[in-house]
Structures
1.
Amino acid sequence: MRRGTWKRSLFAAAFLAFWLAGAGGQAFAAEDSTDRFVDGTVINGLGVTGMTAEEAKAFIESFYQGGYTLKIRDREGKQETIHDTDIGYSLKVTGDLEAILQAENDGGRISGPDVDNRYEVEVAAEYDEKRLRAELLKLSFVKNARETKDASITPYREGMAFEIVPEVQGNDLDVEKLEAAVGGALRAGAEVLELSGTDCYKTVKVHADDPGLISLCDAMNRCADMSVTYVFGDTEEILEGSEICRWLEGADETGILVDEAQAAAYVKTLANQYDTYGMPHDFLTAQGDQVTVTGPYGWKINQAAETEALIQAIRAGENTEREPIYEKTAASRSGNDYGTTYVEVDLKNQHLYLFEDGSCILDTPFVSGNVSKGWTTPDGLYYLYYKQTDKVLRGEDYETPVKYWMPFNGGIGLHDANWRSSFGGEIYKNSGSHGCINLPPDAAAIVYEHVYKNMPVICHGSSGI
C-alpha cells in the first residue's frame, strides 16, 4: 500500500452553496456551539459549516471515496482513466482539524463574507501498488505501443554481408517510470497526468550512424575472411570464417556477440578427436610384446577455458594460429603421446626399463606388490608426481625410511629397498611389497637421477601374475 501527503486548493464550486447560504454582508460573532465550525468554514475546498472536527474529517474523506479519478493523457492526445475503486484508492485526513476549530474559538468565532475562514490540512492518499500496476498494463497506449528499437546489425544470412538495421523510435513506455509518475500524481490528488511532461517514454540509445555500431558491423564482415588454426603436433584443424559467421549473433557495447553454445560444440569436437587422457594406449614392451594400457595420462583440452579463448579470438577478428588450452598434457603429439622417454614397469617379468629418447639406459629387476595378500601392483599409464629423497613411508603396520621416493599412482611409487638381498623372480607372489616397486639401491639412484615430474610411468603385465 502506497501513501503520500498533499494539499488541495479550492475547486468545488458546487459546495460553495453549502456554506454561503444565509451569510450576510458583514462579519458577526456566532453564538453557536464551540465544538462546531463557524459559518463559511472551508477546508481543502470543501464547506464544513456547522460540522464537528470528526464530522468534517469524515465528510472530506468521503468526498474522495468512490469518486476520484486520474486521467492519463499520452503525448499523442489519447486519454485513459484510472478509477479509485480499481486501485483501492482512499484519502485520509492527517492534518489537525481540532486545531482549526480551536483557532476559530480563540478568534471569537467570527464569520461572514468579509472573513476568510478557508483552511488547508494535510491528507494522505493510499492505493494498492499491485492493483495499480495491473491497471496500467491494461492501458491501450501501454498494450498497443510501438516498440522502440536501437539500431542493430542483421543476423547471419547465407551468402550475405552483415548490415545495419536502422533504429525505430516507438511510443512505448517504461512501465517502472510510468508507475512512479502515476503514483506521484495519485499522491498529489491530481486530476490529469500529461505523459508528455515526463520521462516515461523509451528513447533510442543507438542510432544507425553510431560510429561504434558501424565499426562492429565492419568487424563482423571481416570475420568472413578470418580463420582460426588449431595446431596438434603435425596436424592442423582450421576453423574457417564462413563457419565463424554462422556463430555471430550481432553486437552490443562490448563488441561482437558469439554464440557460446556453437563455440563450445566446436571445441568439444576437437576434444573428442584429439583428447587421449584416460583412453586405451597401445604400447610395445621392451620384450617386444604389444599390450594395451589405460590410465590417467594423456592430452585433455580444458573445454570451458578454450571455448572462452576461441570466442575472444573471434571477437578480435584476426587470423590466428593456436594450441588449445589444456587441462592435461602429454609428452608428444606425434606418434604415441607418452613419447620415447619413460619408465616401463613389467610386472609379469618383474623388470623395470628406463628409456631415454627411445634407448633403454637401465634394465633392473624389482619386487612389486604382494599377490598373496591382495596388494598386486595395478597396470596403468601414469604421470610421475614428483621425486624426493630421504622419505619415510608409513602405513597401518609399517614405517620404512627410503633414500629415493618417486610416487606415480596414489601411494604407489618407485623406491630403493636396502633391506632386500634379492630382486626379481617370484618374490612378489608371497613376499612382495604393499604395492610399491622395490628397487635395488644402485638402480633406484639411477632412476632417481633421470626421472622428472610428469614423466610417463607405464605398468603392464599384472593380469598375467
2.
Amino acid sequence: MSKFLATATAFLAAVNSVSAACTNPTQRKPWTDLTTSEKAEFINSTLCLMDPAQAPSKTNYAGSKSRWDELQVAHIAQVQFIHTVGSFLPWHRWFMTVHENLLRTECGYTGPIPYWNEQVDQAAGPLTASTIWGTDPATSFGTGATDENGCVTDGPFTNLRYNINTELERGEDKCLQYDLKQNQFDQLSQDIVNACNALDDYVDFNNCLGGAPHTSGHYAIGGTMDDVSLSPADPMFFMHHTNLDRLWWVWQSKNESRLTDMGGKNVATSTFLVAAQPKSLPESAFAPYFGDNSNVTTLDHIMWMAGTAENITIGEVMDIKSDAICVEYL
C-alpha cells in the first residue's frame, strides 16, 4: 500500500460532525453583483490559495504544495465516486464550502462568494460577451484569449501552473487552458434547467442537472475544464459548481421533503469514469467507508475531503442553512 493510500485510508475512516450553529450565513452572489473591490479581493484571495508561500499544503498528499493543490487532490482521488452518482450534488456542495472556508481562513477573504449565473448570461448573448470576461485582470477572468496551445494569454491566471496528474503524481507543469464553445454554452439555457426543475424525484433531478447544466458548463469553457479529474485547477470550476449548487437549492426549496430526498448508485460504472479513477485508490479503498451499507446512496453516506476538511455525511449538507454549509443565495 502506498504512503498516500495508507494516509488517505486513515482519513477516510475518520468522520466528524460540524457543530457551530448557523446564525450568520455567508452570502453567495452572481459575479455581476460583486463590487469592483470585492471582485479584486476574490481574485487576489484565489491567487493566494494557489501560492505555496502564502497558503502552503498541510497534507502534502500527492506532493501538493499549496492548499489549492489539495483541492485538486480531493477531486482527482475519487473521481469515480463523485460523478454520475447520488453524492454528486451533496459532495460538490461540501466541496464548494471547503473552498470558501480555505479562501477565508488561509487568505483572509471577507466578501461574498461569487457564482457564474450561466443561465442569465446565456440568454443575454454569446459566450464571448459573458459577464465573467473583462480586460482588467484585477476584476475579471480575462477575455478568454489563448495562444496556439490553448494556454490563456490574459487575465489574472496567465501564470497558473498545475502538475498533479490523474494518477496523483507530480508530472509536467500544465498551463490553464480555455477552448470556448458556443454550442455548449447554448445548452446552459434556463429552459433546460426548467425541465430539470419539473422533476419530483431527487434521482431524476440529479441525473438531469448532472447532464447539460453540469457538463456543458465544463465544455463551454473547455481546456482544463474539459478534464473530469483535473478541472478544479481552473478557478472557473468553482464559479460553475457554485451556480449548480444554487440550482439544486432552488429545486430543494420548492418542497421541504427534498431536504431529505437522496438516492442513486454510489459508484459510477461508466467505462469513462472507471478509467479516470487513480489506480492507487480503487473502489475497495472507498466503498467500506461510504456508510450506505449497500450500493445505494443514503443520507449517511460519508464525504471525504482528503484532509482539507472534516469528513461529514450527506445528511449534514442537505440544507444550505445547516451548520456545515451556512450560506444564502442572492
3.
Amino acid sequence: MSRNFEYAAAMFSFKILKKSKRSRARLGVIHTPHGDIETPAFVPVATRATIRTLDTSEVEDVGAQVLICNTFHLHVAPGEKLIKKAGGLHKYMRWNKPLMTDSGGFQVFSLGFGTDHGVGKMLRSEQDKKILEGSQPRSLTITAHGVRFRSPIDGKELFLGPKESIKVQEALGADIIFAFDECPSPLSSAEYMRRSIDTTHRWAAECLDAKKNHKQALYGIVQGGGSMEMRIESAQIIGAMNFDGFGFGGEFGYDKQSMKKVIGAVSDNLPENKPRHILGIGHPEDFSIIVAAGGDTFDCIAPTHYARRGTVFTSRGPSTSLRTSRLQINDRRFLKDINKPLDPSCTCDVCKTYSRSYICSLMRAHELTGMKLTTFHNLHYFNTLATQVRKQIKNGEL
C-alpha cells in the first residue's frame, strides 16, 4: 500500500497528521469546498436533509462537523431537480459545512433482503448464519445495470443504477459522494455474495466513468460481508481504482471482534493516504474499535433514533473516559431527579439548563420538546466522544 500520508485532488484533500504506534488509528484532516473535517469524526445522519427535531443552527451547536444525507429518500421526495434548482443541498438545508450523500445502495438491501429477512448490519446470532438465501430478494429486481423497485411513497416503479446514482448525487451537490453498490443480506449464500461483490466492482467502475463534477470527492465501496477473503479481494480491487476515499459497506459479522477484524483487514489492503468511512456503524462502544482498526469517519443513526425513544447516552467515569452508560429517561423513577442533569459531566446546553425530571415528564407526555432535548444531548455526547478519541490518538493512548 502507498506510504504517502497526503492525498489531494481538485478541491478535496486528506492529510494524516499522526499515526498511532499502538493501533491502526490515525489523526487527520479532510479538506472539502465547505470546510475541514478533523478525523476521526462521527457523522450524524440527516436522512431527508434534516436531523429530526433540530434545526441546522442547533446541529452546529452540538459540534457536528459533517452530515450524511440519504440519496434514495431525497431522490424519491422532494427530488434532486428541485434541490438543484434551490442551489443544491447546502443552500436548500442552510448548512454551510461539509456534506456527504450515500449512494442509495443500502436502500437496495433494505427494500430487498432486509425486508425479506428482517436483518440489519450485524448478524443477531450464530443461528442467523444458518439461514441462507441464494435467490434474488423478492421486493425488487436487480439487473446488470441497476435496481428496479417501487417507490415507498406512491408505488410508482423506479430505477436506480450507478449512472443514475451519480447523476442524482451530482445534482444534490454534497462534498463527498459514494459509488452505487449492492449491499447483500448477511444471510446471503457464498454464491450470491460472490455475484454481488462482482456487481459492486463493475458498478464502481461505471460510477467513476459517470462522474463529471470535479468539485465532489467520490468514495468507492468495499463489500464482501463477513468473509475475510472476499473483503480483502474487494479492498484490493476497489483500492486500485481512482477513488478519492473508501466506504466500508454491508455487514461486519455478528460480534464486535468480527467487526474489528473485518475493518482492520480492509484498512490494510487500501491506499494509506486516502480516507476511510465506515457506513452505518457507530455506537459509543464502537468508536475506539472502529478507529483502532483504521476507520477515519463513521455514521450511525443511534444518537437520534434512540433519543426519540427516550434513551440517553451518558459518560461513565471521568469526562475524558470513553466508557458509556444509557438512561431510559422516560422511566418514571427519573421524575424525582429535579436538580440533576442528564449527565453531570456533560457541557451541552441541555445538561446546563434542564433537569432529568423535566425531560422525563416531557418524554412521558410524548412532547416533541422532550425528543428535541434528548436528541441535542445525544449528538453533543457523540461528538464530544469523537473529540476525546482524537485527543487519545494525539496523546499516544489509542
